[in-house]
Amino acid sequence: MMEFGSRSGSYFALALFGSLFGLLGFGVSREIRLRRPGWRLWRTTLPGLFLFAGPITLIYGTALSGFYEAELRGDQIQLHYFLPGGVDVLSIEEISRIEAEPDMNCKGRWRLELYRRTGERYQSACYNRIRVQQARERLLSLRNAR
User: Fold this and answer.
1) What total of structural domains would you count in the chain?
2) What is the pLDDT of residues 47-84, one digit of tens each?
3) 31-49 pLDDT, tens per residue?
4) Could you identify which of 66, 97, 106, 131 might form a hypothetical disulfide with 115, taking C-beta atoms 3.0 to 4.6 angstroms apart as the criterion?
5) Residue 115: CB partners within 8 Å, gap ≥ 6?
């Protein structure tokens, strides 16, 4: 099992930022309702919803995206993602390229990138350079041994 990032840390970050942006969105919606009593509920709720959903979507789509675990099972690799139930299964023979690359969204962090022969790309979560490069070397040796 190769791990990339910390799921518990990611859950904590998502909960923390979700709470902060949720409170901000709630406060904005409440303030609009107080200043505009004649407005309908959806008109006052929509800005608060955007203040919550927008940043959370950006955080999830950049820093929290990618697989967190790569589990080797025979000649297959199971990629487990942040949300429970998110799994991709690849055979080692399908992988054409394995790269360790710095990530522009996570300063100082790297991602493992797996490319299928069909061109599909699978990225790990952001993690430290040494561990990502070790995982790359391990997968390369497994692929070349077959």
Assistant:
1) 1
2) 999 999 999 999 888 878 899 999 998 889 999 998 87
3) 988 888 888 878 888 999 9
4) 97
5) 95, 96, 97, 98, 99, 121, 122
Please check whether residue 144 is in contact with residue 137, taking contact to mean a CB–CB distance below 8 angstroms: no
Confidence (pLDDT) at 43: 84
Q: Are 121 and 114 a contacting pair, CB within 8 Å?
A: yes
Strand order of the β-sheet with 87-91 is 2-3, 67-73, 76-81, 87-91
Name 34's bridge partners. Answer: none
139: domain CATH number? 2.30.29.30
Is there a contact between 5 and 125 (Cβ–Cβ < 8 Å)? yes
Quote the pTM value: 0.79
**Contacts made by residues 30-33, CB under 8 angstroms, sequence distance 24+:** none
Read off the pLDDT of residues 123-133 as tens digits, 9 standing for 90 and up.
999 999 999 99
Domain span at residue 32?
Answer: 1-146
